[in-house]
Amino acid sequence: MKRLIAAAVVPGVVLFVACTADSAHAYYEAAWDFVCEWECGEAYFPYEYGGYTLNGYASVYFDELPATEYEAYTWAYYDFWQTANCEQFSTTFSQMVCFDTAFLHGVDGWYEFANLYWGYSDDELACRVIDERAYWHDNGSPYSEGWLNRDAALADIGGCW
Questions:
Q1: How far apart are CA 50 and CA 37, in angstroms?
Q2: Average pLDDT of the chain, as a whole number
Q3: Hey, which of 51, 110, 130, 150 would disulfide with 101, CB 3.0 to 4.6 Å?
Q4: Where are the domains of the chain?
């Protein structure tokens, strides 16, 4: 089996991770499954920040929305997984936190949270990012409880809380 070497440049750090193509795909599958539990389907609520949302893509941010869950899966790989360099992390959990944070808070949000903890191990960084997410949620939002439940579910996977 061929090995895939992924290189990512993060502000001040260059990381190299070697993994098989199969394991890289399995990591994305696991991360997508988690995100899809929270994002897949159709949503439109009066207080929704993104307006009409389909499979996690909000009409206020995207001109075109994915017509199917599979299309969202494919788009998200390029829009969030690759752009946030989630494959650079060594565990399914740390990659899942990277992807979920990039999907929920944007790639810039992921880097803003993660930059605080670059010196930590991958899983410790992931747990700290979940803590940051939970701390910075808008508690006055009608979605606050759902966001905290999502953070708690993610933290449970990694044994953080």
A1: 18
A2: 86
A3: 110
A4: 3-158
